[in-house]
Amino acid sequence: MRKLSKKLVYFFAPGKAQGNAAMKDLLGGKGANLAEMAALGLPVPPGFTITTEVCTGYYKHRGRYPKELKAQVERDLGRVEQVMGRKFGDPHDPLLLSVRSGARSSMPGMMETVLNIGLTTKAIPGLIAKTGNPRFVYDAYRRLIMMYSDVVMEKAAGIEPAEGRGIRLQLERLMARMKEARGVSKDTDLTAEDLQVLCDEFRARVQEVLGKPFPDDPVDQLWGGIGAIFQSWMGRRAVAYRRIEKIPDDWGTAVNVQVMVFGNMGDNSGTGVGFTRDPATGANVFYGEWLPNAQGEDVVAGIRTPLHVNEAGKTEHNRHLPSLQTAMPQVYRQLNALQKKLERHYRDMLDIEFTIEEGRRWMLQCRVGKRNGVAAVKMAVDMAESRLITRQEAVRRVRPDALIQVLLPMVDPQAERNARPLAKGLPAGPGGAHGMIVFTADEAARRGKELKERVILVRNETSPEDVHGMHAAQAILTARGGMTSHAALVARGWGKCCIVGCAALDIDMDHRRLCVDGRALREGDWITLNGTAGLVYEGRLPLVSPDLEHNQEYRRLMRWVDSLRKMGVRANADTPQDARQAVAFGAEGIGLFRTEHMFYGEGSAEPLFLLRKMIASATEAQRRKALDELFPFMKSDIRATLQVMGGRPVTIRLLDPPLHEFVPHEPARLKELADSLGVSVDDLERRVSALRESNPMMGHRGVRLGITYPEVSEYQVRAILEAAAELIKEGKRVMPEIMIPVTCTAGELEHQLQICRRVHEDVCRRLGLKRVPYLFGTMIEIPRAALTAGKMAQTSEFFSFGTNDMTQMGFGFSRDDMGAFLPAYLKTGILPDDPFQTIDQEGVGELVRFGIERGRAVRKDLKVGICGEHGGDPESVKFCYRVGMDYVSCSPFRVPVARLAAAHAALEAKARGKQPEGD
Ligand code: ADP
Ligand code: MG
Ligand code: MG
Questions:
Q1: Strand (E) or helix (H) holding 700
Q2: Minimum CA distance residue for ligand 1 atom 17
Q3: What is the pLDDT of residue 919?
Q4: H/E run at residue 363
Q5: pTM of the full structure
Q6: Catalytic residue among 55, 199, 308, 486
Q7: Taking burial as the number of CB atoms within 10 A of a residue's CB, which of 114, 259, 359, 546 is the most buried?
Q8: Mean pLDDT for the chain?
Q9: The dihedral of CA 202, 207, 209, 215: what is its sign?
């Protein structure tokens, strides 16, 4: 256990600061950046930061502070007073303070802040005399009472009032009543006298509800505020948030104590927030909002419509209102210069808070700003082009997962700015979607699938019975549930737009009605979701589709990505169309072509019938006959795909799924099949029921089929090699790789290799070629295959890790049934992640690492890749690089994500001074 370091408090003031931006762990993000801005000489109100270590100690020692804290706070308060030339608690000229929380990483809306600390009944006349502005003074006091009674006297004291009985709400109601009595609508319309009366009412109410007088001593207020911030770290909301974001409890929060500046001193004052670039589009323009005569959170609280900082960013809501640029041109110019200076210094887009006190601008906060994926790409490339950052930094700036947003449709940012969200929930699946509300999965399936309408499934929560409707819907919206709820897991798996935990939705299933934000919506009404931000809108907002062809920034970034990455990226594709798409997304080959695809979906009727015929055959001769008929279908798709890939490797997997998946059950189909086989329906049913398995996943499938019916493998291999041979004869380049699935022992591979060799010889002879190039290899998906990889590599020229099945079999978790228990594992933290989403490095990952090691020990040039869904998950991609894979393969859509993740992996390895571990 680490001892508390002696220094517990760090001072900052313009031109001098003891901390800096690198000290986020100790000073929290807010404190570290306040110090950095102060050191840069920016106008930051002086103050000091109490470290996160004090918070950690506070919890370790049951709410006690280290004994040095008091003296250090007093010392730095003295320095603040010296800089300001005023004293905290001086009744004639009181210095007021804010007490602000600030953890290492921002936890929006979770932690507390109290403004105007130090304002007491004794100081009020002094401050009025000093400012000549009684309205301002009572406005500041009523804000202090509201915040302090809520944060310090109620929440930090552990009082949990009944719904709607919280002290803050009660005071807000008093204020609303006052406005009503005066016939005004805005807070700013209340006069000094009104506010004075209100403050008296507030104090009486605090006494009545909380049984204590409002503290009237500045020092009591200060320590009350500090204690409440530490207390808020363990508040219920904050703890829940940290669980979701995986922020450890022992990080603690810092407390920033800072001189108040006032945006509520009249019309030449105000407060606002901004971004150094537009966070929705990435455009290089100062983007922000402000309110005149306002303090603190007024801008974001939505009490009044905020104004825009400049003419460029106006929306329909504030188009008619003056911007800061026109209202206070000089302040705007200064502020603009400050934000530019800050961005140049930080070399990134920043989110800033500022306050204007009687024409003077003050900086109150800055941090690296959140942005959507589209903006992230544009900013990174723009900044690299203007030499603010290097190309490597630009590549590192874009999170692989954020890149998917560039590939998805999104709500038109301009339209979104002009719309007001109905509700906000958790962003469980990115991208934008619009559609008509439906309340049941069946309705979603009917209208979505059959009528081909755009629908959004709205539920309190979803369950496995809803999956068909979820699939048919454009998007999913739930009132309950968190980021690991059923809806969130399923949507993420499909890459579908999804918002969960949208508590403001009140769904009335009896009347098929949805009430939200005072509006009633019915089935069939249009809504629009921004799944990237978790926002719900009424109506049909336009979506913009990605246009990669013309997205210059994207193309440039991906060029840099490809020059940095060392590992290959392929796609899983089953048709020539998929293959074309994959190449467009930058795939360098196909890592998984499933031969069975031709039996599903459009155009599958005839091949499926022939397959069924094969399955139901009783003799080899019958089977061969059916296979003969099936053969042209097999060959044509393989041929077309090899041709599209033009010499790039194409891994073709022999038939994998359990046969019973293809068996017909409808009487009409059975009859048809029976007739064509010349047997009775009864006979056929007997054969079919013999195929039934109690555990098909581990049943008669994959290579096992090729062992029991070698002709099934033979025809497939022939289709592959003939297709390749024909293309070669036409002068084309091809590189097929034959992959045997579900193997667990070297003997199986030996057996299948003989078939391949025989067919190869035969094809060459018949087509007059010396040889057809191909590789022979296997999936490694059964734990035993990984453990005996040395033997498997004697026949295999390549391994492709099938980590979906390996995760199923490694954990013994049935993927189709885990909905019942996996959420509990994630919620309790027993498992850190869904192992089907991100590879389990310490278990399943060990099998992979071991398999590669053993395989390469036998065959040095063994090609190794992965073809499970993990191939598109950034963390898993990095793992694949570290264990020395040659490539990852994922769905075409995730290819850009995997390319970027592979580049990140290479950069991280370089930073560690290491090559991949397998090298
Ligand atoms: P959060 O962590 O939620 O951003 P902050 O600590 O930034 O909370 O404070 C909330 C609001 O109070 C912000 O709008 C901020 O600008 C304002 N504020 C904080 N400290 C001061 C101060 N010293 N003077 C004026 N306004 C302040
Ligand atoms: Mg803030
Ligand atoms: Mg498999």
A1: none
A2: 296
A3: 41
A4: strand 360-368
A5: 0.86
A6: 486
A7: 114
A8: 93
A9: positive
